């Protein structure tokens, strides 16, 4: 049985303050000092919220120079001993340059990534404040993936952090480790004009999970969750789907300031991120109340 009113504890204004705090570090592309600072901030926040934190360090390659780039995922676990688990994840890196700027002279500028990079992490930070109160026996992991888009004008590979996470999880699972019942990826969930369509890969390969989330959204009157079928989006749910974890991406691919210098905290809406956060918490509460193997 879920905790009455638990999902309503997600505070969009507080999540926006977390976005502002992350953006104060500056642009946070993979391998940058600001990315390392953000990782430390998030890890400490997860620990102080009761999570058991692990850092998954790995190396990637700079797509233009070929130089090695240090990367790391941050994973926090609540009820780490539980074998049946749920995962909520987001990427923390910002794209290196604003390559969707209309003015070609501005396409090499860095940008803050308040929504694309910041909002998913801020949503996880707000979720972390409440996960310890989740009823039931299921374990919950919150993961911040690195290197979702260390890409320059489509040169480079996407989703390096989630690929590394999936590789490690598959190896642990094959050795008798825990399993994920489902995963939800949050990406660009705070835009002022946000509309979340049902993303194509999730709808095709995890239709039941998509329906569970949208059922919670309908029950809550979450108007930013559209019944329309949207684009097929290359995002961090794909490596998870590839290893058999039912996964859905909540992603606003029509965000007007996407990959531009206009992606600042002012482009974010506390009510948008609050709506997403409360739907995710409502889903977590519902699944936890039904128990493993529902």
From TrEMBL:
Keyword annotations of the record: Acyltransferase, Transferase
SUPFAM superfamilies named among the record's database cross-references: Zn-dependent exopeptidases
InterPro entries recorded: Peptidase_M28, QC/QCL
Annotated coiled-coil segments of the chain: none
Domain named Peptidase M28: residues: 73-281
Record has Acyltransferase as a keyword: yes
Domain of life of the organism encoding this protein: Bacteria
GO MF, one example: glutaminyl-peptide cyclotransferase activity
Protein name as catalogued: Peptidase family M28
Species annotation: Tautonia plasticadhaerens
């Amino acid at each position: 049985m879920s905790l009455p009113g638990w999902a309503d504890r997600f505070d969009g204004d507080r999540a926006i303050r977390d976005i502002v705090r992350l953006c104060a570090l500056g642009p946070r592309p993979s391998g940058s000092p600001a990315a390392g600072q953000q990782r430390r901030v998030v890890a400490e926040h997860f620990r102080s919220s009761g999570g058991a934190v692990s850092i998954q360090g790995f190396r990637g390659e700079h797509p233009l120079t070929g130089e090695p780039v240090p990367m790391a995922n941050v994973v926090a676990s609540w009820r780490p001993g539980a074998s049946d688990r749920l995962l909520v994840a987001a990427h923390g890196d910002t794209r290196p340059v604003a390559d969707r700027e209309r003015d070609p002279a501005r396409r090499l500028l860095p940008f803050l990534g308040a929504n694309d990079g910041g909002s998913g992490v801020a949503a996880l930070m707000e979720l972390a404040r409440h996960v310890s109160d989740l009823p039931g026996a299921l374990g919950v992991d919150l993961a911040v993936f690195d290197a979702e888009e260390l890409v320059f004008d489509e040169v480079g590979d996407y989703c390096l952090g989630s690929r590394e996470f999936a590789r490690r999880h598959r190896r642990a699972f094959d050795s008798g480790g825990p399993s994920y019942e489902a995963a939800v990826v949050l990406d660009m969930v705070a835009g002022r004009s946000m509309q979340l369509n049902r993303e194509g890969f999730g709808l095709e390969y995890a239709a039941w999970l998509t329906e569970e989330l949208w059922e919670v959204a309908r029950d809550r009157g979450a108007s930013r969750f559209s019944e329309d079928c949207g684009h097929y989006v290359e995002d961090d749910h794909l490596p998870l789907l590839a290893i058999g974890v039912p996964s859905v991406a909540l992603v606003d691919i029509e965000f007007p300031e996407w990959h531009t210098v206009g992606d600042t905290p002012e482009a974010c809406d506390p009510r948008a991120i609050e709506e997403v956060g409360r739907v995710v918490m409502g889903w977590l509460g519902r699944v936890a109340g039904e128990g493993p193997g529902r």
